[in-house]
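A reminder from the course coordinator: this example appears on the midterm review sheet, so study it carefully.

Given structure:
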């Protein structure tokens, strides 16, 4: 990374890497802001000296603040991702792409930052991210993000905003497959897909290629998913829609029964994968983890939306540190142990914190 600080009187009091590492450790231990970085640093100074130089002790909170306001987020993300994936063979089966707004990051100078992330659920790692001014700009950001990634042999999943011909073509060109949520923003295609499944429901046995069910029971709540797949060759206007390698049409009927109350939602998807219901159900379920794991942990555990950090690059850089902290903690999660309890333990036990950081 490029150190953005000005050299005054020929030297800098604190090492660049020391400041970044203490910032990351603070978020692993449940800290939230720059003052917490100073407090944690002073509390763990002797332990930190076992692997950091700290030539002039622990920086104060203003030093942390000024540095994280200026660090280039792209450089920080790339550097830390390279570190946590060093020596690992990353071949993600699925890569989910979705955006999240850092709600408290807006100021008089800029709107709240909206970050589009590529999430590898099996590895628990954000492979890359790009920042846009608002959610409506995701369509332009997704191709930029895809170009940064090695997605070969993976399946890329995106919500309905990313259901675009250009995006599908880019995914195929990069040697991957796609599974895209289909809604009314692709009006004609959506209408024909809905009609095909309605014909199948009425007894047209030539349409349905495969189906399966996926039921889960959590306490008093029963979730039932019926997954049905039709070959895209059944579309009368398939060639006119312009989605390269369009192979499968998918419908998921999701029924939730909670204390006797039943609610149902219907979702549609298009994919370049063969019409295999079990595989497509797996791929779609993995996409939802970007909400249920990444975004939920950022909001509930790291309390990202409550953060009042607004200036310059600091909201984006703290967002990156939270994601790296999450990627380091998730591999150690066992059973029903909550992430917050793991973070609390890391704040108390040096050996456990070393295990989180270095896997030893």
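Designed residues:
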């Amino acid at each position: 990374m490029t150190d953005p600080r000005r050299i005054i009187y020929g030297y800098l009091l604190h090492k660049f890497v020391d400041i970044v590492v203490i910032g990351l450790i603070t978020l692993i231990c449940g800290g939230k802001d720059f003052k917490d970085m100073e407090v944690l640093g002073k509390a763990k100074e002797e332990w930190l000296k076992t692997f950091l130089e700290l030539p002039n002790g622990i920086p104060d909170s203003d030093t942390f603040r000024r540095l994280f306001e200026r660090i280039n987020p792209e450089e920080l993300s790339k550097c830390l991702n390279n570190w946590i994936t060093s020596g690992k063979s990353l071949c993600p089966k699925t890569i989910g792409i979705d955006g999240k707004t850092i709600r408290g990051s807006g100021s008089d100078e800029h709107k709240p930052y909206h970050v589009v992330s590529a999430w590898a659920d099996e590895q628990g790692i954000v492979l890359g991210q790009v920042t846009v001014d608002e959610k409506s700009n995701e369509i332009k950001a997704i191709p930029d993000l895809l170009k940064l990634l090695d997605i070969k042999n993976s399946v890329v999943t995106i919500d309905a905003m990313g259901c675009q011909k250009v995006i599908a073509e880019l995914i195929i060109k990069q040697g991957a497959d796609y599974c895209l949520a289909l809604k009314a923003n692709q009006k004609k295609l959506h209408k024909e897909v809905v009609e095909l499944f309605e014909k199948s429901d009425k007894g047209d046995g030539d349409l349905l290629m495969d189906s399966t069910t996926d039921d889960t029971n959590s306490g008093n709540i029963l979730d039932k998913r019926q997954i049905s797949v039709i070959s895209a060759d059944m579309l009368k206007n398939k060639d006119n829609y312009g989605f390269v390698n369009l192979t499968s049409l998918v419908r998921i009927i999701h029924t939730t029964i909670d204390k006797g109350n039943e609610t149902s939602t219907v979702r549609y998807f298009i994919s370049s994968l063969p019409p295999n219901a079990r595989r497509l159900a797996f791929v779609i379920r993995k996409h939802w983890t970007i909400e249920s794991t990444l975004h939920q942990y950022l909001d509930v555990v790291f309390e990202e939306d409550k953060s009042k950090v607004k200036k310059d690059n600091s909201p984006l850089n703290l967002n990156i540190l939270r994601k790296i902290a999450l990627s380091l903690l998730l591999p150690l999660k066992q059973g029903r142990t909550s992430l917050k309890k793991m973070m609390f333990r890391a704040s108390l036990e040096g050996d456990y914190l070393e295990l989180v950081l270095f896997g030893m």
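Residues 94-300 form a domain with the Transposase Inhibitor Protein From Tn5; Chain A, domain 1 fold (CATH 3.90.350.10). The first helix runs from residue 16 to 28.
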